[in-house]
């Protein structure tokens, strides 16, 4: 969701910077990029370790509600992702949303995309968040298909590792966080023009890398 489907990462980083400033903690945009795609409890623990004297659940609730309010006011769709999602949905292909967000944040997004996702897996439903593959394996199980018959689309290092290690054919799109190359991983500059035909090709093993040495 965050980054791949909607350009919400700036909302998250702004929320992190605001919290950090209140507690006299330095937190840069580059620091924010290191948390992209991580489970929220992991991100909260980073702040606690850096001196924020709040319980993890309070930190998480604050971030979720703050980002959710922005998304509810305006859903910042990634246009290339929205076009591909609409095409896949129109073709009758079941879709799962696999996100480490939950609560108000996820609901705000789902309210803007009603009827699109057959399955939703959120960060509070798994024991091990991304980069562990548990969330993707659970999504495939709920879809009722083998994970190797799924195409996963990600934009973060943690999410990419989770999807790829689950056995799903994985496409990683370059947004704001660098994505390391991996043998068999498709990396693209944009999802524009991929379409159902492109997804089918990747599922059949025709991976490719548009990013070259730009990680």
Total count of strands? 5
- Using the coordinates above, name the CATH class of the largest domain: Alpha Beta
Oligomer: single chain
Helix % is 40-55%
- Poorly predicted residue ranges: none
What percentage of the residues does DSSP assign to strands (E)?
5-15%
At CATH level 3, the topology of the largest domain is Rossmann fold
CATH-defined architecture of the largest domain: 3-Layer(aba) Sandwich
Shape, per Cα inertia axes: globular
Q: What gap, in angstroms, lies between the N and C termini?
A: 21 Å
Task: Name the structural class.
Answer: mainly alpha
Task: Write the H/E string, N to C.
Answer: HHHHHEHEHEHEEH
Describe this structure in words.
Helix 1 crosses helix 4 (56-73), helix 3 (40-49) packs across helix 4 (56-73) and helix 4 runs parallel beside helix 6 (104-112). The chain has helices at residues 9-22, 29-33, 40-49, 56-73, 79-90, 104-112, 134-143, 157-166, 195-203; strands at residues 96-98, 119-121, 151-154, 169-173, 186-188. The two termini are 21 Å apart. Helices cover 45% and strands 8% of the residues. It folds into two domains: 9-73, DNA polymerase, domain 1, CATH 1.10.150; 79-203, 3-Layer(aba) Sandwich (Rossmann fold), CATH 3.40.50. The chain is built from nine helices and five strands. The chain is mainly alpha-helical and 215 residues long.
